[in-house]
Write a structure and sequence with these properties.
Length: 365
């Protein structure tokens, strides 16, 4: 059964993303604690989906977020502009000069190599986005006046503060009033919940949100940590791909949250930091659709692979493709995104579709 959504002609936006955009500082081949220079990127779980949809798939996307009005915030704004995501719903918060009351989030990320895992160190407490609260955003203007086909948000934004889950709930309610499909990426981050009650608090908050969305996305660990789901037979280990076990988990998730129209999970085995097995599954209408599994996939930068999976999957639905095609778009786009640096995708639609068709890595001239 096709997912019901607004038509493109009656919507200004193909996708609205709600989440924080941070400045990512990347030491390249170096370590964070020994680096002498960093490359600057923009990034954020929810934003990355909007950027990937726009850049790779030609979708019209906008980001709802907040930034402290200082040079760092203006740099992030310029990077968003270069990323092709609309900035008209960006909320500017006055800066006090030193970040005592508000600041912009920073994310230091090193890629890892071989047996050395990738490492992330975020510096984002008290950020402008974390201080968003219910009533700050005119959702009626976005969903009723402008019109949007899809809303995407996730567990990272919901974990930022006591008020951000309320913003998520408000956005979802408004989206549903105006026939907008809502997706939510669990994106569980233990560090974000550590001071807020840990795993039990995360499960309570996130389960409440999942009960009201249409499409749920995550990796295999997210479903266990964020929702308390079990992967039968694996005992919490993610060292091998077991599609049958994860298919059962998706079916159990659908029974627990009967409102869900689709549930997608990315599957990854990190043999080394730069060589992974990569795949995914999509549950829809009681059927589980497996994406092509790519074994020994060479990885340059794994950060953002799941977000690119999400944007490829959403593209499939926005374009009206059947579930099997949608999950193949997700898996192929995620695989290509991890071959380039930074959080966000540099892939083209032609490259995604060529990979889906089985193209190899020979030089193209």
């Amino acid at each position: 059964m096709a997912m019901t959504m607004r038509s493109r002609s009656e919507s200004r936006w193909d996708l609205v993303a709600l989440g924080e955009v941070m400045l990512r500082l990347d030491p390249g081949d170096e370590r964070i604690h020994t680096a002498r220079q960093f490359r600057a990127w923009e990034g954020g779980g929810e934003y990355n989906v909007a950027r990937g949809l726009g850049r790779c798939f030609g979708a019209r996307t906008t980001i709802v977020t907040a930034l402290a009005d200082n040079p760092v915030g203006r740099l992030i704004e310029d990077l968003i502009h270069q990323g092709g995501v609309d900035r008209s719903h960006l909320r500017w918060v006055p800066y006090d000069g030193i970040g005592r009351t508000v600041r912009n989030g920073l994310n230091f990320t090193e890629r890892g190599f071989g047996v050395r895992a990738a490492v992330g160190s975020s510096d984002r407490a008290n950020s402008a986005a974390s201080q968003l609260k219910a009533g700050d955003v005119d959702w009626e203007a976005i969903f009723a006046t402008e019109g949007a086909r899809w809303l995407h948000t996730g567990g990272i934004f919901a974990a930022l503060s006591e008020t951000t889950p309320e913003v998520v709930a408000e956005a979802i309610a408004a989206a549903h009033r105006h026939r907008t499909v809502v997706s939510f990426d669990l994106n569980y981050r233990e560090s974000l919940w550590r001071g807020r009650g840990g795993g039990p608090a995360a499960q309570e908050v996130l389960a409440g949100i999942v009960a009201s969305v249409d499409v749920l996305i995550g990796n295999e660990e997210d479903f266990v940590a964020a929702l308390g789901m079990e992967v039968a037979g694996l005992r919490g280990s993610f060292e091998r791909l077991e599609p049958e076990a994860y298919a059962a988990m998706l079916t159990a998730t659908s029974a627990r949250f009967p409102n869900l129209q689709a549930i997608a999970v990315t599957l990854r085995v990190a043999r080394t930091a730069n060589r992974n097995d990569w795949g995914g599954l999509l549950w829809s209408d009681g059927v589980v659709y497996p994406a092509t599994t790519r074994r020994d996939l060479d990885i340059l930068d794994r950060i953002g692979g799941g977000d690119s999976f999400a944007s490829g999957l959403i593209h499939g639905y926005l374009a009206g493709y059947p579930p099997q095609v949608a999950v193949e778009y997700g898996a192929a786009h995620g695989a290509l995104a991890m071959t380039t640096p930074g959080d966000t995708s540099m892939a083209t639609l032609a490259e995604v579709e060529a990979l889906m068709a089985g193209a190899g890595a020979r030089v193209r001239r």
